[in-house]
Amino acid sequence: MIKLPLALLATVLAAPLLAQPAAPPPPPVVVAPWIHALRDDALANDRHAWDITEGLTTEVGPRMAGTAAEARARAWSVAKLKAMGFSNVRVETFDMPVWVRGPESAEVLAPFPQRLVVAALGNSASTGPAGVSGEVAAFDSVDALRAAPDAAVRGKIVFIDHRMTPTQDGSGYGQFGAPRRAGPTLASQKGAIAIVVRSIGTDHHRNPHTGVMSFADGAKPIPAGALTIPDAEQLVRILKRGKPVTIRLRLESTTMASAQSGNVIAEVPGRDPRLAPVLVAGHLDSWDQGTGAIDDASGVAIAAAAAKRIMDAGRPLRTIRIVWFGAEEVGLLGGLDYLARHGKEPHHAAAESDFGADRIWKVESKLGEARRDEARLIGAALAPLGIVTGSFDEADGSDIGPLLASGVPGVGLGQDGTRYFDLHHTPDDTLDKVDPVQLRQNVAAWTAMLAVTTGPIEPNARPRR
Amino acid sequence: MIKLPLALLATVLAAPLLAQPAAPPPPPVVVAPWIHALRDDALANDRHAWDITEGLTTEVGPRMAGTAAEARARAWSVAKLKAMGFSNVRVETFDMPVWVRGPESAEVLAPFPQRLVVAALGNSASTGPAGVSGEVAAFDSVDALRAAPDAAVRGKIVFIDHRMTPTQDGSGYGQFGAPRRAGPTLASQKGAIAIVVRSIGTDHHRNPHTGVMSFADGAKPIPAGALTIPDAEQLVRILKRGKPVTIRLRLESTTMASAQSGNVIAEVPGRDPRLAPVLVAGHLDSWDQGTGAIDDASGVAIAAAAAKRIMDAGRPLRTIRIVWFGAEEVGLLGGLDYLARHGKEPHHAAAESDFGADRIWKVESKLGEARRDEARLIGAALAPLGIVTGSFDEADGSDIGPLLASGVPGVGLGQDGTRYFDLHHTPDDTLDKVDPVQLRQNVAAWTAMLAVTTGPIEPNARPRR
Lengths: 465, 465
Known about the structure:
2 copies of one chain form a homodimer. By secondary structure, chain A is of the alpha/beta class. The first copy, chain A, has helices spanning 6-18, 33-45, 48-59, 68-83, 142-147, 172-176, 178-181, 183-189, 229-240, 293-313, 333-342, 372-382, 401-405, 420-423, 436-453, and strands at residues 87-110, 114-116, 118-120, 132-139, 157-160, 194-198, 224-227, 246-268, 278-283, 320-325, 349-352, 360-366, 388-389, 410-415. In chain A, strands 1, 2, 3, 4, 5, 6, 7, 8, 9, 10 and 11 form an 11-stranded mixed β-sheet that branches. In chain A, strands 13-12-14 form a 3-stranded mixed β-sheet, with helices on one face. The radius of gyration of chain A is 24 Å and the shape is elongated.
């Protein structure tokens, strides 16, 4: 059975009967053969994205914002982008505070002594080497914690449960991420000595999902960690026995008031330097537990590989500006620095790849009413890859979020997120999770999108160096 | 297309042409309706196996041989088996040396500094808190290490790679487990300062697979660990860059010369105490990283649940003896203690569940030529569960291996091992990996097997206490 949306079904059924004059069909969208060819060559043959993803995750590995590893990643990136032939390769540095994970452990002390696997959340207070011990006060949601009297929480270790489920568009992250984002502040305000949350994730492995949080409204920092999903479920089973449960948490960490991060920028100069550039992005920093293969080595790789393919085909009308942002994970600091420096410059469009490397299933854009034909052409150029055209009034991105909010037009190439939150912010974010075939589909889609947005390519000219 | 084995195809094709007198068909195997009923009730309704698996993994958790946790597991088991109504519940203790994991870490020092995830193998020498550092000498098999000149290994840290693939019958464990079992001795003999192996497993998670090894032939103990599979693959990529690779290993551990372990035993008394009992088993101890849900809480649970279902149906002709062995993981110590105490007593049959809790797909037995009808009846009773009848000359088991080798008849109910080595000996061996539906299929098969081997049940009599 084929299911049609009801509204569409009604149209189909009603049309012959009512025989109303049809609305004029929208003008046909014709994708030029050279765009098809560029896209399909990327789909079949791209190696640039894999080379960058493999190289960055192998030769640098984890690259936590503001650390020496992130600095090595910038040096690696500058060398790589120059070697690929891009122009104007440079780093724009900025300073930032840095939180660094130390030794960490957790254990049930009573009634059933056993270890639990935990990771501190970014900006957790340090327990010091002695750790903290206390009775668990358990809640099944942030709202349940919010509704609880302070007396039920004071002096205890809060535990917040939830049950995040996978979605293709990743939309559960907003709702189910609340325990990590809002839980620590609430727990602190109610007098808790620490908090652990069920990892914001959808897997069943003993790999905790870390992530950033901050203490708002003047709340005093307390130790805050994420239990793996099997461990959170174990704690729930132990709590269900109805006896008081005490746990011990050791989450050591250190902070540096100021360290350096930076954005790495490179360009494919356009034929007309007066025209606004198309910005394509990803972020260079990663969390510390994995090698950041899907978050976001593959993202910087996809953006740069597509730009490289356009550059190798000739000279586009508009400049392509590649930005590999620093310090995304800890609060979009690279994106905010870019906005402060370049936010007043015109941008023709901005797009970011920061949702893994599984196949792109949907394209959305927010180019404005006057550029609807361009938006439709992007959709038509991507459709042969099995990509649905979604809204013409939506575009998002992490680092480019502030830029889009300031009014810059955007394109969103949405990856399939079904397994993204199995891996996100865990030790399991490693190269073996990147599927080379799906990675090439990403590059093909980005190449086609750039072919449309940067304007016709002049095949015989060479890129300016 | 239907594919027939060639030999069978030849028979089918030749039969009408040659018209030889047919061999007399084997006598029909008739499974009594009460056996069908017992089996199908277990398949639909068993809760005993889940209760034991959930209870043991939750209320005790990890239970490393010889530790206080294993002692708590014995106390838990005695209480549980008594509460279930079994008779003669007792513990047979024995002494053993104990190796206990301490803090552990690994990191690449050069050329690309980054952490690796490692776990010490059982009986590894301790590096002490300072760890050991050295250049990596890499080999893609134990044979390659064996063939290498000592000079290529001396003073270095050996790394052995391999590529284990999943099999339904688990038969790859023998071949691909060689790096763990033979590697440390070989590396030590050639003068290595330590060894790491690619985890003996088939997953792609950052969870190392531990397991026991021992230094043979007087080889001096050296630190020995297992890298997770993503980390082993990362090390291979780093090595492929062609520069010398140095790593630092910290594998701390402690040993106790003597501690106590023990086998927990319970019985369903048979109507005729002169008849040899049927032994059903699993092992109570687990590795320390997970809660030993598939290895082997589910095994002890399946064996006991089936015995419980027979007991609740009435009195079997033969005694069922349940043995939950101690200290299997560290060298079958419980099985050897049982053999020493009971090896000269007659046993009608022995069976052990120690390969997870996924569905049973094959039954094999070694009951002897004279009991072929009984073996065929077991196969017929299990066939409605989709279980293939395999060899009549094979049976195996871990703890019961020495008993079977001494001539005790055996039955082997083989679970599907396709995902077993994703989890085996890792932190990921937790309750969420046990599928309740497949667990019930196991109990159904074991119940039917016991219904056949213990002889007719007298429904109206009550079990002796």
